[in-house]
Amino acid sequence: METKTEQPVKAPPAFTGLSDAEAESRRAQGLGNRATIPSSRTYWQIFKENAFTFVNIVLFGLGIILILLGRVSDALVSVGVISINMIVSIVQEIHAKQTLDHISLITRPAVTVVREGMLKKVDLEAIVAGDVLLVETGDQVVADGALLSEDAIQVDESQLTGESNPITKHTADPLYSGSFCLSGSGYYQAEKVGSESLTNRLTTSARAFRRVKTPLQKEVNLVVRVLLLVAGYLEILLIVNSLFEKIPLVESVRMSVVVLGLIPNGLFLAIATSYAMGAVRIASKGALVQQSNAIESLSHVNVLCLDKTGTLTTNRLKVNHLVPVQTADDIFRCALGDFTASFQSRNQTTAAISEACPGSAQPTLESVPFSSTYRWSGLAMNSGVYILGAPETVLAALEQQDSLLPTIEEWTQQGLRVLVFAHSPNVVPLHDVHDAPVLPAGLVPLGLIALADELRPEARETLENFRKAGVEPKIFSGDNPDTVAALAKQAGFDPQSEAVSGIELARMKPEQVSQALANQSIFGRIAPQQKEQMVHILRDQGKYVAMIGDGVNDVLALKGADLAIAMQSGSQAARAVSDIVLLDDSFGVLPQAVLEGQRILNGMQDTFKLFLTRILYVVLLILSSAAIGGFPLTPKHNSILTFLTVGLPTIALAAWAKPGAVPQTNALRRISHFVLPAGLALGLAGMGVFIGFLIMPAVLSGHFSLSNSIEVDLGSIGLNIAQTALTSFSIFCGLFLILFVEPPSQFWVGGTSLRADPRSYYLAGGLCAIFVLILVTPPLRNFFELAPLAWFTYLLLFGLASLWALLVRWLWRSQALDRYLSLE
Question: 661-668: which pairs have CB atoms within 8 A and are 24 or more residues apart?
């Protein structure tokens, strides 16, 4: 479809392109670009990743075995909880996908195509074989074809070849979809589109390597792997015990279901759901998340590297000064205007100069488009060679330069971008035998140009917010160090900061570069390869690095960072490798994204506490039960315990989580302060309840004696009563645990700081009401295999749970276990 935002403009006479009728005819013949870029995971991927996990497959398999053994209700319950979690996660992720796909479709960059001699912006799907396309600096080549323009361009084919060296393309040279234009601009004809080209792999290949796991994901993976080992060990013990004790197969399978329930499969679902909903929330504020874990990743960032142009500034330039040297002002302006008009490639600099100095295109013999690597551009005409570039580069080739230095220094101190325009009457080659650009010697200066960058209005406040959050900003720019420093100080950097140049860094040893990065924050005249090197050094120092960029020269650094962020108006190359795209070109949204990341981390920390406390408790129960022979829980008991104390609470607590600073320490170590006292105390108390109700018949009949062995009732009725009492006690303790995880008042503060959110009371009370409803409804009570107990028995169990709550609160507040284990 054709975009409506811009009026079509004329293309050069040599490129007429197809007519609209011809394009429609070719599309009807199947020559259209139907293999479009997927903006997110497919519905099948969402279903597959949520449904076909290892634990789900095993549990569903055990469920089938239970059905074959006649235990249909056990089978339904054993997979019921994970099925509910799975369905909720799938529904939420699909909703998030639809929202993000809509935003991605709106913001997807258009392609410039020539139709009937006019340049038009069209969607990727509108391209057909035979179309003439315009590619400019930073654009992505979207179809396989041949270059038509006479001017050479440089492309990056690293996504296809793995080699990052720029490749110069001349007329008739092939261009491949998946590559990016590094410098220059030109027209090429699409020969292979759709499924015949690489277009469908563009974005995925560019971002495939950016599967960077966040600290939270690594910790969850560790927990799940450890618990897989624990569950496997317990399963082996069960198998051995079943063989020696001749336990019926159906009972062995039921016990296996409980053991496999130790694996916190819901953690993955909880994280996926949190990521999806966080992405939707932050999208409404102006940031498109391209990697699901990007927002959580942002909350770990402690160094923020940003380019100046287009990030700290608005990417809009205007000419402030034009000063001729050794020539008349009108001659200088005319030559400068003709120079910029003769270039097919356009950028912000040439656009600003062309507006100040209109000119007409002249015949050219050779051209060198601007590149951030060599920092100059040049044209060879019949009247000689003209060069426009940075002072540090061009001055070395001038015959006279001393008179220019005071003006250049004055302008750079004001934060202006300075360019030198020079000329040689001799027509000399601009490329060497290897086709690399060569700056001619003996140039004569024609004049100086000063361009002003406009600082983004939100830049100062945003950087200050990052500093308050403990994030250190650093500027990596290709501009003059003094210019960069002047603008950086306007944005709130330390007025005493000194800028370090890329030339100085190139002379340093690696350890000196590392020291410079540790001590300084402003860097100018930094080449793309240096940006990448500096990002890697910061990561080697243990920093969690985010990189914000908008140009092709930022791509290498974006690839190397823990988190890559691009501007929507930036190059396609930068957007393609980024984890987050700032839709309004404002990085003022990032502090809000940091808060969203903190919300995710805090919600997951609460989820961790509930999951791991329950897991530690059940493991202790299973191991302790080996001493008496009775298994403490059935699949139905375990399912109701999991559903009421973990399943529903974690969904609510994740939704209610609030942002707040999260310590940059290992999450497992942090929450051990909560989990160990709660889990150990609950394990001892739970086993006491279980054994107590097993020996109660012996006590009541007078057969219990300290001098005799304990008589326990392992018959179906006695064991069911003990299991019911244990399940009830565990649920009561689990409801108290919710109040400890999210303390609504000072009384509940022990393992966690005060949250003062009364919804915790409502949640615990509502879950308690559900459990009471199950107990007083015979069909439900029978379905969950809960034995009917006297009302005072439930009061006794609730009282014991209250005593456990007081005990564990004392353990947290006294930090007795922490001191014993040296957990600080």
Answer: 661/469, 661/470, 661/598, 662/299, 662/598, 662/601, 662/602, 662/605, 664/300, 664/302, 666/215, 666/219, 667/215, 667/216, 667/219, 667/601, 667/604, 667/605, 667/608, 668/219, 668/222, 668/223, 668/608
- Cα–Cα distance, 298 to 545 (Å, whole number): 9
Report how many domains make up the chain.
Answer: 3
Rounded to an integer, what distance in angstroms lies between the CA atom of residue 77 and that of residue 83?
Answer: 10
Average pLDDT, the chain: 80
Sequence-ordered alpha helix ranges (H) in 315-385: 329-342, 348-356
Distance CA 12, CA 15 (A): 6
Under 8 Å between Cβ of 622 and 632:
yes
- Kindly list the strands in the beta sheet with 563-567, ordered across the sheet, starting from the edge strand earlier in the chain: 287-289, 580-582, 563-567, 545-549, 303-306, 472-476, 522-524, 499-501
> Could you tell me the CATH number of the domain that includes residue 356?
3.40.1110.10
Residue 575 near residue 581, CB atoms below 8 Å: yes
Q: Quick one: DSSP state of residue 124?
A: G
Closest CA to 553 of 583, 574, 578: 574
Burial label, 778 (beta-carbon count in 10 A; 0-12, 13-18, 19+): exposed
- The runs of H, that is alpha helices, within 667-822 are 667-701, 716-741, 759-776, 778-783, 791-814, 816-821
Same domain, 131 and 230: no
Residues 633, 760 within the same domain = yes
Does residue 255 share a domain with residue 226? yes
Q: Is 301 within the bounds of a domain? A: no
- Domain limits for position 156: 9-30+109-206
For residues 341 and 224, membership in a common domain is answered with no
Angle, to 10 degrees, between the axis of helix 759-776 and the axis of helix 716-741? 170
Summarised one tens digit per residue, pLDDT across range 579-633 is 888 887 777 788 878 778 888 888 888 888 888 898 888 888 888 776 666 678 7
Give yes or no: residues 190 and 68 share one domain.
Answer: no
Strand, coil or helix: what is 111?
Answer: strand
Based on the fold, state whether residues 269 and 414 are members of the same structural domain.
Answer: no
For the chain, the straight-line distance linking the first and the last C-alpha, in angstroms and rounded, comes to: 60
Domain end marker among 402, 430, 448:
448
| Helix/strand/coil for 326 | coil
Q: How far apart are CA 446 and CA 383, in angstroms?
A: 14
Cα 480 to Cα 391: distance, rounded to the nearest angstrom: 9
Contacts of 21 (CB under 8 A, 6+ apart): none
Residues 342-358 have a mean pLDDT of: 82
What count of other Cβ atoms lies within 10 Å of the Cβ of residue 620?
Answer: 18
Asked if residue 220 lies in contact with residue 671, where contact means CB atoms within 8 angstroms, the answer is no
- Read off the CATH number of the domain in which 60 is found: 1.20.1110.10
Q: Tell me, yes or no, whether 140 lies in a domain.
A: yes
- How many Cβ atoms sit within 10 Å of the Cβ of residue 612? 22
Helix (H) or strand (E) holding 655: helix 648-656
pTM: 0.66
Structure tokens at 179: 């590559």
Rounded Cα distance between 23 and 668, Å, is 59
User: How many Cα atoms are found within 13 Å in the side-chain-facing hemisphere of 516?
Assistant: 23
**CATH, residue 142:** 2.70.150.10
**72 inside domain:** yes
Mean pLDDT over residues 706-717, rounded? 51
Domain contains 468: no
Enter the tokens of residue 120: 């038009």
Q: Is 711 exposed, middle or buried (0-12, 13-18, 19+ CB in 10 A)?
A: middle
Least confident of 165-174, 279-288, 698-707, 783-792: 698-707
Q: Give the number of other CB atoms < 10 A from CB of residue 377.
A: 26
User: Of the candidates 145, 177, 206, which is a domain's last residue?
Assistant: 206
Q: How many CB atoms lie within 10 A of CB 98?
A: 12
Say if residue 336 is in the same domain as residue 443. yes
Residue 798 CB-density burial (10 A; 0-12 exposed, 13-18 middle, 19+ buried): middle
Same domain, 130 and 162: yes
